[in-house]
């Protein structure tokens, strides 16, 4: 009997629907607080830390990469050591500490530099201590996100999944619907209401609101502690994959045959995998038994899992290696979506009035991307799938790979449209005599920016769901959570690549005393050139995607052919990354 079942039977009054308000409120408030900070933070960094637009964007990109990357670490620690309850609790408290530190930078003048206008555009330097305080707040929030986001949703499942009660399957499905609905509402509130408060009432109030929300989030989660089912930690699948890599490396010089060998380690003994696959045969060394007396315990288990992995672990590792080329094609689309900081600067110089009495905050335009993403997923699932399935013969309409390609092309179109819009905006700014004043309003509606956000939303919806389904169709059921992990790692890598790209473009285009393309004065810079560069790189990435598709089609091993990928298993939407 597994640990989860023991816990449920020993504590029949724990878990269930009574715990859902605590978990969902915890996640919702954390989302509102976190996204409310991130959306508008580029303005705070440029105003009170005198950072250039390029530097601020690079720092925010590194912060996003760290938060997503630590999600994998948090998942491993929660699965293998502390359990999900402690992981969410530690993450929530860490996030609260980070937000308090960031709020203190707004409250205490000594923790930030004075804005440039007070020195007649001669900026005073930011001290190392001030930057250390700022970065420590980012660090605490990254650690918090790394623990909360991979564990919160599954912790909710722990409260509802009770063996012997099949009716709980409906409760779990309902929970997922409410959970993701709360995330959507929280994100919209964050990029609208919280951002509006920051612009209307200033940063002292604007950064204080997330602190209050996060305090409520921590409090609600801890109050529900007596009623939670707390599943104990067990071995992590990610640790098992790492053990297979180490075991194969340690046995790289082994002289055992790589084929036609029956001495493979299987655990548990009733394994369904009979023989290892023929591709990536070098990894088969990891599950080869060299000396049964040394390698195995009396019960048949491996004496040292870092020297001997099971055949299942090796095949799982091979499944990941097979999808790496296709996984890498998704980096560029998330690089393009990490350029919101520059779009915020664009919107700040444009007329943002929706009606004469209301002006939409510059950082709130990303809400149009969220609307487009949500509407597209619903429209495709409910309208297009029934129509397309009649013509394609596929239960999911278009294949996962086709949808991924559509997403890549639409993201390329979005960057091209962004470049055209920026060139028009800059030309108007110059004609109106605002070249030397980056804060002047241009006689141009900010609604011109909406189409590029809509296209990015459709691009992410098409690509993200297609990519998850692609992984889901290749991986065995036991590896379904790895699909979400790879998506998260991909966004982390993309954020890091985007940060490096911004820094590189800023450095290269400012050599010789020239004005950088990514100048803080976007009326003097060439932000349109940068968007054209992203469009060109996105187009190159699409051609790379086509090459990878052909590589899968022409593979010698049937396991890596695209026809196997196109089985059209329905995507388990709970695998979609919460970030």
UniProtKB/TrEMBL annotation:
Pfam families: PTR2
Subcellular location as annotated: Membrane
Record's keyword annotation contains Membrane: yes
InterPro entries given in the database record: MFS_trans_sf, POT_fam
Bilayer-spanning residue ranges: 41-66, 87-108, 128-157, 178-197, 209-229, 360-380, 401-420, 487-509, 529-552
Molecular function as annotated in GO: transmembrane transporter activity
Alphabetical UniProt keywords: Membrane, Transmembrane, Transmembrane helix
A GO CC term attached to the entry: membrane
Membrane topology: Multi-pass membrane protein
Family: Belongs to the major facilitator superfamily. Phosphate:H(+) symporter (TC 2.A.1.9) family. Belongs to the major facilitator superfamily. Proton-dependent oligopeptide transporter (POT/PTR) (TC 2.A.17) family.
Protein name: Protein NRT1/ PTR FAMILY 1.2-like
Organism, as annotated: Solanum bulbocastanum (Wild potato)
